[in-house]
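Title: Prediction job returns without error message
Component: structure pipeline
Severity: low
Priority: P3
Assignee: unassigned

Description:
Job completed but the reporter wants confirmation the result is attached to the right record. Sequence as submitted:
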Amino acid sequence: MAEAVAPSRWQARLASVVLVAFALVTFAAGLTAWQKYRMLAGTLTPGPYVDNPLVEVDTYFRNLMGWRTGLLVLALLQFSIWLADMRDVADALWREGQRRRRGWLVFGWVIPLAQLFVPKMFINDLWAASRPASQRRRGHPLLTVWWLSVLVAANAYGDGSADLKKAVDARQARHALRHLMISDGLYICAAALSIVVVWHLVRRLESAAAMTPVVV
């Protein structure tokens, strides 16, 4: 029996919601880091722990960083679930073009070296499956820019949190906070581009699936 196979928009919406939540918490953490950075630039005077402005800002900052880490893990998980849903459609459209088994949807994010190219391979294969059979080509400038943003966000200035914990004076703490704020900006850019890629691929696969009934 032939029928159209279409991607579910529910997983794309959920992935987008998690990515937006991650970006908002990251932005809030960056603002708190900036406030702490400015406070450390002034003269620090000893005072009680209760109602101490620096302690209050530091508490908010640590809580937001914890939420950011949790939302990052959740975003990776939901993005992988969305990829699995898109893989169902791509298998129906161009099964032989999908180069990696489904297990790599999870392991590709955590295995060293594989992290650098396996997730991008899945996206490239989905993109090619969404094109007409005579025009299938893996890769696109949008996908390249997106993946570079993800790699840079994940690897650049990643030592900011560790340096902040090891800081022994205000100068070292401010240096670590600068790295953290830059890292926050990179993560927000990567999250925004991830949402663009999610919906671009959903629309392309919807269009390809509507025009290509498959046997199920």
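Comment from assignee: result matches the submitted record. The CA atoms of residues 31 and 68 lie 13 Å apart.
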